[in-house]
Structures are given as structure tokens and as C-alpha cells.
Design a protein that fits this description.
This protein has about 850 residues and is an alpha+beta fold. The longest helix has 22 residues. The mean pLDDT is about 95.
């Protein structure tokens, strides 16, 4: 029988330790199964062939534990193991399996590569044909190690000796390029051999210089060059090294991609494809010409903080319909984000055209919601037999695809939809006895997948796909339960701070691109700007990472200080441009900010809420003066809110569900006002037959506001309503993702006529956080879920639910069911190293430690009696 051991050590929020960008990576491990809690630990490191140990360290820390040794140097590889002493164990555990952490290029002076791209003249105002770049090189003797450090101005895919390097797509992703360009480290030892070798890269425009954004888009947002930055470092068997870096010795040529854009799609001519172009025997030599060198400050090159975008699933069409004119209409049964992979055979010059859309209208692709994102891919066949192809530098949001020009019979085996998103680890699951709610939850998951594509976007299909700050702010609690998104969002928040204006204003979306006339110049807006205070706090609570709170504290403070200046001594933010309760269903299609709730009520409520959370963050960081200052500010704003927006009888000046929900959920009311607000909120919901009447701001909090004021039954009525507008109305219409508007598809079958009508928009899916905590019954009571609350609150005819979350410490789970006699059976799982309290309706709380626990409400009541 093997000795129990901790799980292998992980580093920061990364899936592996290769190419890490910090010299002092923090360590995380999970305890041996069934070990209870940790009393002490020891870390052992193997560095340069020598072992170092920390010795026994007393304490229970096991998540993001500080680096225990001297800082890493560039390229250094260290093997890390941990063992632990746990409750009741006389001896330590076995050592964990080894984990390797290897530093990337930590010093700007490590970089010798410069950007290289095509040497021919291009028209920066026009669509340009992508280039490929290539380098032949010779390795004198056997190698023991090879690393490729690579990024680009634009997008890239690298091949070495004809083999693809890595599996990510749309690399290097989208950051605020002037300040941060992400590079990735690859172990390419197996790609190389003694003698002649070739490295080459496909290039694409991407966000860097492609046409992107509103109203026809803007080209060359960050530059008009398209260039690879790559540094291949080889270690020979005698310990000597060689570096092959992008420089003037590289060559460039066009390839089979005629055009490629994130919105437009990709045009590929297989007649021009040389499969051996990145090998030592390319078919054509004469077209390769000298590259043009570019400039890049190596100080701006940064290592990843999270995983890249990858293909995570493949799906066959569920139906193929041939139209009278010979087109094929494919239904994949799921609104997804990705692209098609085709295998086709036909005469040379045969042109296959693929168009994409989320929904059908009168049996045809409904492309109106795409606006100017044409989402069209084209393949021209070479005539040399079956050809398999997938676009490289574009993604589409679609459920349906139309294929024109297909030669012969189109079968399910000929076409595959490949799903792409940031390859985060799934951490949260929920299901219950109501199949409509299960589909709603699955829709939330799919919308997160489709919009967490390197940055958290609003929608994946039209000419937008931007990192809207308000959308992520309301959805972050749901996102952080469903997936390990800490590294990805930590990276994005870094860019939010970089884009923050000197006066503290947070942009509407990050990275910032031109958005006239509505979004440029940037103005401060409530709920969107509050991502600076609320999202770091959410990530701290869910992942236990105090550094995220610390790194973003200055940004959060600058934001709250700005709003304090705007509000003035009255403490009311009642001036300026605001989006209010965006997409309130009562707002007209062409003015989604014109909802029922006073937008300045929304702004002042968020001012108080952010000030309070800034005080909480300051307390966690040990900043006593700021803790007191911003707590007092929050109370002043709450008092001003009550004075301006709450009437003597407890009703509010905006007699709307969002107004009451904010007052309750943000704790802005006195206790008598809170009771009155809860009653009025429930009354409003029931008066409208439990149809939803909230937008982006009210929707995430309305069910909690009802639940916390004793109206759980009304919250369930709201949840289970199927008439439009409601959460379940889209489900009854066959939706497989969350819609941007409650009525993106109207009951009469027509599309909402508004200029923005997306069928994949996660913001209104923020209700899933309430599902996890209230219906499922799992909530964090301490950072990283080290302390948990298990408190299921059944209703709505739901008779059972199962919820599971992979916390940083391990799996927490709760399953419950009710019986005809009114009893509740509960099975709770507490991760090793954690503790919890179980609160069943009508029963006293039960404190539980690590392990599995079965409880029965009737038995608990009997014990109490």
C-alpha cells in the first residue's frame, strides 16, 4: 500500500511552471486524501543538481505559499516537492510527485530577437495579405534542451521542421500592446535534430493591426507592421549553447492565406499551399525575400499569467439540410465559438464558402446581428485529392453554418466544429430536479466559454468582442465558481489599471480602442468603473490570492477617490453620463440605457458599495487609516442615498425592482427601510407575474435581495418564470447560450430590432451565482473557500440539487433532496484543510470538518428537541 502524498505542487495560477514570469513563484498543493488538516510542511527543491530543503515549517498554509528559496534566474529549472504533517500523523507524508518550474526570460537584456516581417511595400489603409517568415539553421551536434520564446506583432503559429509548435490559437492574445506583449515558452527539444533545421511562422493581423471595432472598425490600432519575435535557445550535449533569434537573416514570403480578419473570416487558397514550406526541402525557394526589421522594447515582453486559447471540444453537426440551390445548412445544436474544420475533395479552383450565424430567420442565416462582422471563410481546393483545412487567425460565434460550393456529398464526417476559448480548468458544477434550470445553467457555462477568449468579451460574433468592464464586474462571482479564471482575470485587470486615466477613470472596455461618438472620449460610469474595486475583491475571496487585492489596490483607490470628487460634499453621484440599469427590458431597443431606474440612484449606490469594499480591502492589507476613511465614506454615501432616494414610508423615488434590489443587496437601508423595500420588491415582482424587470445592474442582485428579506418564494417565482422576459424564456425558445437582451428573439419569432442583439452574452447569466449559493447551497465564508457555508434553501418545486466546486484546497460538494414528509437529506463534502458549517432550514447550525457528512433535517430537529 502506497503512502499518501500531497498532490503535485502548482505555481501561481498557471497550468504548469514552464516559462514563468516571476522569480519567486508561489506554491500551492492539496493535502493527501482524508488527511484532515495540515500542521506543518517541508518543501524540497532540486536546483542545478543539488537538493535544498526548507526543513519543517509549522503552519497550515498550502495555497499560494511564498517561494521558499533564492529567486529564480532566467531559464533556471527547479524541481519542487512537498511533504506535510497532518492531524494525528506521527510521521510526515510521502513526498509529492515532482513538479518543474522554469523561469522565462526575466531580464530584458536576455532578449536578442527583434521583430521581423515582410520586406515588401504594403498599403496600411487596405487589407493586406499575411506573410510567413522562415529561417534555415544548422545544429552542430546533439542537443539536450531547446526552448522557444515567441510572440508577435499580430498573431502567429510556429512550425519547426514542419511540425506545429504548441496548440494555442490567436497567440499571443490581446493585451495593451504598447505596455505588455505576452510571449510564451515552448519546450521544442523533440522538434530538432542534428544538422539542418528550419523554423517558420504563419502571421496574421489579429487585434494588432487588423480592422477592429465599431462603425466599420479601425485599422492599425497598435501599428501597421506584422512581425514575429522569436528566440530559439539550444543547449548542446557538451553544455554549450546556440541562439537562433529573429533578425535580418530571416526571409519572408506570402502563403496560401489571401486574407484573414477576426471579424471578416479567412480566405485560403490551397493551390498555393506548400506543406513542406517549413522544412529543409520546400517546393519553392525563389519567392523568399529578405525581411524588414521592426522595433520592440524588450521591457514590454511579459510571460503569461494564465492559460492560452485552445481548442477544447469538437462537435459534429446534428443536422445537415440541402437547399434547393445546392447550399448546405448545418446545425451544430449548440451556439459556440470556434471555427469549422473541413475535409473536401474536388477539382482545382473549386471554391467552398462558409458563412456563420447564431440563429436562423425564415430558414436562412440571420446575419443582421453580426453587423459588419462578415464571418465568412473561403477555401479554394488544389485538386490534389482530399484536403483538410481549418482557418488559423479567426473565430466565429455560431450555431449554424452555411456551406456553398461543396463538391459532391457533404456528410457529418466531412465537417467538424472546433470550440475555442481560454483553456481554463473547470471548477464548478450544478444540477437540480428542474431540467429547464439545468439548461439555463448550461447556457451560462457555454456563454462563459464563448466569451472568455483571452480577455472577457461581451459577445463573440458581431463587430465588437470587447472587454467590457461592467459585464465582467457583474459576472465575476459566477465565473470564478465555474472555472479557474484567476490567472486570466489577473492579467486582464493589469491592463485595466494600465488603461485607467490619470484622474482615476476606468474605461468602458479594456483594452481601449476607438469607439466614437459614445465611448470616446472615455467618461467615468458606475458599475463599469467599479470593476476596479469589486472584481479584485471577488477574486481574493474565491481564490485566496491576497496579491491580487494588493496589486489592484491603487487602481481601486484612484477610482473611489475620483467618484468622491465627482459627488462632492453631498456624496451623491448625480451628474455626468451613466448607463444606469443597462438593458432594462422596459428600455426601448434603440436606447438600452433608458430604463426605469434613475441612473444616478444606480451611480450613488455603486459609489457606496465600492467605498465599502475598498475599506474591506484596506483591512485585509493592514491599512488601518484607509480602512477607517473609506468605511466612513461608505456610511456617508449610504446616508446621502437614503436621504435622496428613499421616501419616508420606505418606498424609493425610483419605484423599480432594480432600485430596491440595490438598496437591499448593497446594504444601504436602515432595518425598517430594508423590510419595507423587501416587501415592495416582492410586490413589484408579483404584480408583473414574476417576469424580469431588471437589466445588467439589477439582475445579479435581485434574487439575493428577495432571499435576504424573507421572500425566497418570490425569488423562485422569478427564476422559474418562462414567459418573456425571464431567464427561462430563452430556454423555452431553444437557446443554448445566454442572450444579450431578454427578448433577443421575440415571441413572434422576429429578431429584436435593436442595433445590438447578441445571442451569446454572459452578463444576464450572473444569476448562476445565486443558483450555486442558494439553490445549490455552497458559499465561501473565508478567502479561497477555506471556510465554507452549506446552506441550501429549497423552493420553486425543486426537490433535489447537486453542486460541486473545486476550491484551491480541493473539492467541496453538497447534494440535497427533500422528501414528501418535508425532511431534507444532505450530503456535504469538506476539502482537507478546510472547515464548514451546515445550515438547514429550521435547524441549528452544524459545524463540520474535512471529510464527508450526511445529515437529516428531522434528526437534527430531534436532537435539538
Amino acid at each position: 500500500m502506497s503512502t499518501p502524498q500531497p498532490a503535485p505542487v502548482s505555481f501561481e495560477h498557471l497550468p504548469d511552471g514552464l516559462g514563468i514570469g516571476t522569480a519567486t513563484p508561489r506554491l500551492t498543493w492539496k493535502l493527501p486524501p482524508g488527511s484532515g488538516s495540515q500542521q506543518a510542511y517541508e518543501v524540497r527543491l532540486e536546483r542545478a543538481g543539488r537538493q535544498r530543503g526548507t526543513g519543517r515549517i509549522e503552519g497550515s498554509d498550502q495555497v499560494l505559499v511564498p517561494w521558499p528559496d533564492e529567486p529564480l534566474t532566467s531559464r533556471e529549472n527547479v524541481i519542487v516537492r512537498v511533504r506535510v504533517w497532518t492531524d494525528g500523523a506521527v510521521a510526515p507524508s510521502a513526498w509529492s510527485e515532482p513538479s518543474a518550474v522554469e523561469a522565462g526570460l526575466l531580464d530584458p537584456a536576455d532578449w536578442r530577437a527583434v521583430p521581423v516581417g515582410c520586406g515588401w511595400t504594403e498599403d496600411p489603409a487596405a487589407e493586406r495579405r499575411p506573410a510567413r517568415v522562415r529561417k534555415d539553421f544548422h545544429l552542430d551536434r546533439p542537443i539536450t534542451r531547446a526552448r522557444l520564446y515567441v510572440t508577435a506583432h499580430g498573431l502567429y503559429e510556429v512550425e519547426i521542421n514542419g511540425l506545429r509548435v504548441g496548440s494555442e490559437t490567436l497567440a499571443p492574445g490581446w493585451t495593451v500592446y504598447p505596455h505588455r506583449l505576452r510571449y510564451r515558452t515552448h519546450d521544442v527539444t523533440a522538434h530538432l535534430g542534428t544538422g539542418a533545421n528550419v523554423i517558420g511562422a504563419w502571421l496574421g493581423d489579429g487585434w494588432y493591426r487588423g480592422k477592429y471595432g465599431f462603425d466599420g472598425g479601425t485599422r492599425n490600432i497598435y501599428g501597421d507592421d506584422q512581425a514575429l519575435i522569436a528566440q530559439l535557445e539550444v543547449t548542446y550535449d557538451d553544455g554549450t549553447t546556440a541562439v537562433i533569434a529573429t533578425d535580418a537573416t530571416w526571409t519572408a514570403a506570402t502563403g496560401p492565406i489571401a486574407s484573414s480578419g477576426l471579424y471578416e473570416g479567412e480566405h485560403f487558397d490551397a493551390r498555393l499551399d506548400d506543406p513542406h514550406w517549413a522544412t529543409i526541402t520546400p517546393e519553392r525557394h525563389d519567392e523568399w525575400t529578405p525581411v524588414r526589421l521592426g522595433n520592440r522594447n524588450p521591457r514590454t515582453l511579459v510571460a503569461p499569467q494564465g492559460p492560452p486559447v485552445r481548442c477544447t471540444q469538437e462537435m459534429a453537426p446534428t443536422a445537415i439540410t440541402r437547399t434547393a440551390d445546392g447550399r448546405h445548412l448545418l446545425d451544430f445544436g449548440q451556439n459556440l465559438v470556434g471555427r469549422l474544420r473541413l475535409t473536401a475533395d474536388g477539382p482545382a479552383g473549386t471554391t467552398i464558402t462558409i458563412r456563420h450565424a447564431e440563429v436562423l430567420q425564415d430558414g436562412e442565416l440571420a446575419t443582421q446581428p453580426l453587423r459588419e462582422a462578415y464571418s465568412t471563410d473561403t477555401l479554394i481546393l488544389s485538386g490534389h485529392g482530399p484536403y483538410t483545412w481549418e482557418p488559423r487567425f479567426t473565430l466565429h460565434g455560431f450555431r449554424y453554418a452555411e456551406i456553398s460550393g461543396w463538391p459532391g456529398e457533404l456528410t457529418q464526417e466531412s465537417v467538424t466544429a472546433r470550440v475555442y476559448h481560454t483553456d481554463m480548468r473547470r471548477t464548478g458544477w450544478f444540477e437540480c430536479s428542474d431540467p429547464l434550470i439545468n439548461r439555463l445553467h448550461e447556457n451560462v457555462v457555454w456563454s462563459m466559454r464563448g466569451n472568455f477568449v483571452d480577455i472577457p468579451t461581451d459577445c463573440p460574433q458581431r463587430d465588437e468582442r470587447l472587454g467590457w468592464t461592467g459585464d465582467l464586474q457583474v459576472f465575476a462571482p459566477t465565473a470564478s465558481f465555474l472555472y479557474d479564471c484567476a490567472g486570466m482575470l489577473d492579467s486582464w485587470l493589469t491592463d485595466v489599471e494600465l488603461e485607467q486615466l490619470p484622474d482615476g477613470t476606468i474605461p468602458w472596455y479594456v483594452p481601449v480602442i476607438p469607439g466614437k461618438p459614445m465611448w470616446t472620449p472615455i467618461q467615468p460610469g458606475a458599475a463599469w468603473g467599479d470593476v476596479a474595486t469589486l472584481t479584485p475583491w471577488t477574486l481574493y475571496r474565491r481564490f485566496g490570492d491576497l496579491q491580487i487585492l494588493s496589486r489592484n489596490y491603487a487602481m481601486a483607490k484612484a477610482w473611489v477617490d475620483l467618484v468622491e470628487r465627482l459627488a462632492g460634499p453631498a456624496r451623491l453621484w448625480d451628474t455626468g453620463f451613466q448607463l444606469g440599469d443597462w438593458l432594462d427590458p422596459a428600455a426601448p431597443p434603440d436606447d438600452p440605457a433608458a430604463g426605469c431606474t434613475d441612473r444616478y440612484l444606480v451611480a450613488t449606490a455603486y459609489f457606496a458599495y465600492s467605498a465599502r469594499h475598498l475599506s474591506l480591502a484596506a483591512a485585509e492589507l493592514g491599512m488601518k487609516r484607509d480602512t477607517e476613511r473609506y468605511a466612513a465614506l461608505a456610511e456617508e454615501v449610504a446616508a446621502a442615498f437614503r436621504h435622496r432616494y428613499v421616501l419616508p414610508g420606505g418606498s424609493m423615488t425610483s419605484d423599480s425592482p432594480t432600485a430596491y434590489a440595490l438598496g437591499i443587496a448593497f446594504d444601504l437601508l436602515t432595518e425598517p427601510q430594508r423590510r419595507a423595500a423587501g416587501a415592495r420588491l416582492a410586490e413589484l415582482v408579483l404584480a408583473d407575474e414574476a417576469r424580469i424587470a431588471t437589466g445588467f445592474v439589477g439582475t445579479p442582485v435581485i434574487c439575493d435581495a428577495l432571499t435576504d428579506t424573507g421572500h425566497l418564494d418570490v425569488a423562485y417565482r422569478l427564476l422559474t418564470q418562462t414567459e418573456c422576459p425571464s431567464w427561462l424564456y430563452p430556454v423555452t425558445q431553444g437557446a443554448t447560450t445566454i442572450w444579450e437582451r431578454w427578448d433577443s428573439l421575440r415571441p413572434d419569432g422576429t429578431l429584436n430590432p435593436g442595433g445590438m442583439t447578441s445571442f451569446n452574452h454572459y452578463a444576464l447569466g450572473a444569476v448562476a451565482d445565486w443558483l450555486h449559493r442558494v439553490v445549490g447551497g455552497i458559499a465561501e465564508a473565508g478567502p479561497g473557500y477555506r471556510q465554507l457555508v452549506f446552506q441550501p434553501r429549497p423552493g420553486g418545486g425543486i426537490t433535489w440539487a447537486r453542486t460541486r466546486h473545486e476550491t484551491p484546497y480541493g473539492a467541496a460538494a453538497l447534494s440535497w433532496e427533500t422528501t414528501a414528509e418535508g425532511r431534507m437529506h444532505v450530503h456535504a463534502v469538506v476539502p482537507d484543510g478546510c472547515s464548514g458549517v451546515v445550515r438547514l432550514p429550521g435547524c441549528p447550525p452544524v459545524h463540520v470538518g474535512p471529510g464527508k457528512h450526511d445529515l437529516d433535517s428531522w434528526e437534527l430537529l430531534q436532537e435539538t428537541a
